Amino acid sequence: MKIVVVIPAYNEEKVVGEVVHAAIKEGFSVIVVDDGSTDRTGEIAREAGAKIYRHIINLGLGATLATGLMAARRYNPDIVVTMDADGQHRAQDIPLLIKPLENLRADFVVGSRFLGKSFRKRDESVPAIRWFYNLFGNLITYFLFGVKTTDSQSGLRALNSRALEKINIQSLEMEVSSEFFKEIKNNNLRLKEVPIKGIYTEYSMSKPDLGKTQNLLTGVKTLFNLFLHRFTK
Fold it and tell me: I need a labelling partner for 41 at 20 to 30 A (CA). Which of 54, 148, 178, 185 fits?
């Protein structure tokens, strides 16, 4: 069974090599889409063994994932996995993630950090602000697209060849996470969630969070774009 891991990356030179190496160590082929990075992200990922696709300019997460899925189709994979480049996902969770696809029980699988967990019972490593942000994303995803999920913002996903053929990502930016659920609903794909553990390192937590103006504005923009996707496309 051919499995391809797609990693969207923007200025992740500090950790992308480790992320690529971990996925390759698990036996998977890796595609890194360098979204116009100004550092050595693409070079380091190539040295670690990934196939590299590059945007000349920074286009956003949605556009980068769309490029990654398009690139993956060239290799005729049975399964495609998406994972973040910042080290928040464990490559050793991928076998669990793809198992429902291998058993023909799902077309699309989401790795959930919150499956079966309340706020009080969440993994202590998950910052409270991330939990509430994800909960808000879950509610918006259900309101707009009618799909229930415990982790709408998870970047660790797996899809089979049918889902890969059907899903058509049009988002350019962060709203892509919820757009995947729109595509699942519109294409009658079977969705399943499996539990995973998120890794919150000092590096990943040093990035802007929801408490900062930049990300508050990003959140408002993301919500606006989701409404556009729901009511105009």
Answer: 178
